[in-house]
Design a protein that fits this description.
The chain has 454 residues and is of the alpha/beta class. Helices cover 33% and strands 21% of the residues. The protein contains 17 helices and 18 strands.
């Protein structure tokens, strides 16, 4: 092949951008070269970082600086505000590209099958995250009337949800939150937030730094019941073999033995409480029933038959994200991932779907931190390049660079570009500067497209 290898990446979050970076660092990028187009259904890039990371975590958002350097490369183009498969299908992508990599992530809530989950006042954490992160495709308001709230789950998303619910709107104002989110949080009535985990401190999935950040707010009192500090042989083995798990357990131990202070908002971390039912009255949440659990020696737990009803009027489930099914790709409904072999998509007969690959959470599920996606991308790209080297890619009928923008224009798609992102970025920063903030995020899709100069 005398021309550059043409690759489409569907999804311009960290996973997709890391895949582009891996392609450009390969030997193929030197001769005859690679040409990469990223397709993103949002008008702006960065996926999870823009719409999944809490606004008071600028440390994580700093990853954008490294991603910027990838998208600045001349081999890469961004086509934002382009929906797969609504605006471009897999067959159409195959016409323009030698290979297609899907990195569409996971932004929906996993189901939790307990009675009462459909009551008014029962929410998915992913929906709440989308609201406070200013996602353009969700409602602009959020009901925040509950004074006592439960959060189910012991991962970082549960911490984010609990922290946003417990903080004051004024604490969050210096961040990039848009005006509608600030106004909503000013009306927030939550004074008690209860986080529930069915296992013990050694099994919590918090990151140590994220956990400690809970205690940094001058308005949040973090409370841990000393009776919830318990370990069996399996838990001790976990602590010895996992530095992060040990640091989390140590932090929880320190909080359990200290006196309760007088900060106005109370955030309780409960362990060994398994959610059994969301209690309702007149179709609305009025409580949560949990069963007390105990360790079984292996680090797992069993029920004790002791139940507790908690006085809460809103419940947020933060039990994990799931990916959505993609048109023309196989899908495992149990794992919510695309079946693959080292990133090569597997058809129903377990053969490789020619020229189609996956990376990120659509490949392996929503586990690990953002940085872990880089190794994922390297594996997928290595397979893609091996297939390219052995002639197994189907080849593009229209590989010319101008073919794609011409196709989108003919279809009437108002797409945004990487240059357009710089315009939108400058506009958001200008909005922030007027208020003494780094940026104010634009929420409305039409406004994002317009300020991007589409």
């Amino acid at each position: 092949m005398s021309r550059p290898l043409r690759v489409a990446i569907v999804g311009a979050g960290p996973a997709g951008i890391y895949a582009a970076d891996a392609l450009m660092k390969s030997e193929t990028a030197q001769d005859p070269g690679v040409s990469i187009d990223l397709f993103e259904r949002m008008p702006a890039p960065f996926g999870l970082i823009r719409y999944g990371v809490a606004p008071d975590h600028p440390r994580i958002k700093a990853i954008v600086t490294a991603l910027n350097q990838v998208l600045d490369k001349p081999q890469v183009r961004l086509f934002g505000n382009v929906d797969y498969p609504g605006d471009i299908t897999l067959d159409e992508l195959h016409a323009f590209y030698d290979a297609v990599v899907f990195s569409t992530g996971a932004m929906a809530d996993r189901a939790l099958d307990i009675p009462g989950i459909a009551l008014e006042g029962s929410y998915g954490a992913a929906d709440f995250v989308s609201w406070y992160d200013g996602h353009p495709d969700v409602p602009r308001t959020w009901p925040l009337e509950a004074e006592k709230v439960a959060v189910l789950g012991v991962g970082n998303v549960a911490l984010d949800v609990a922290r946003i619910l417990a903080k004051t709107a004024e604490e969050l104002l210096p961040t990039e939150i848009p005006p509608n989110v600030h106004a909503g949080l000013r009306a927030n009535r939550a004074r008690e937030v209860h986080v529930f985990g069915r296992r013990g401190p050694a099994q919590a999935k918090f990151s140590p730094m994220e956990l400690r950040e809970l205690d940094h707010s001058p308005t949040i009192e973090v409370i841990v019941n000393p009776e919830d500090i318990d370990y069996d042989e399996g838990s001790i083995a976990t602590r010895r073999g996992n530095k992060q798990a040990n640091m989390v357990a140590q932090t929880l131990e320190n909080w359990a033995i200290r006196d309760v202070g007088d900060r106005p908002h109370k955030l309780f971390l409960h362990f060994f409480e398994s959610p059994e039912e969301i209690l309702g009255e007149d179709g609305k949440v009025v409580g949560l029933r949990t069963e007390r659990t105990e360790l079984d020696g292996t680090g797992n737990v069993k029920g004790t038959g002791k139940f507790t009803d908690w006085d809460v009027s809103a419940v947020y489930r933060a039990v994990g994200y799931r990916s959505d099914e993609l048109a023309k790709l196989p899908f495992d409904v149990e794992t919510h991932t695309v079946p693959h072999e080292a990133g090569r998509v597997l058809a129903a007969d377990r053969t490789h779907q020619s020229g189609v690959y996956v990376t990120g959470w659509i490949k392996r599920g929503p586990v690990g931190l953002i940085g872990h996606t880089k190794g994922d991308a390297n594996e997928t790209v290595a397979c893609l390049l091996e297939d390219h080297g052995t002639g197994r890619l189907p080849g593009a009928a229209q590989p010319e660079l101008e073919a794609v923008p011409a196709f989108l224009a003919e279809r009437g798609v108002r797409y945004t570009t990487w240059e357009g992102w710089y315009r939108l970025d400058a506009h958001e920063r200008a909005l922030g500067e007027a208020e003494g903030r780094e940026r104010v995020k634009v929420v409305e899709r039409e406004d994002m497209v317009r300020h991007s100069g589409a």
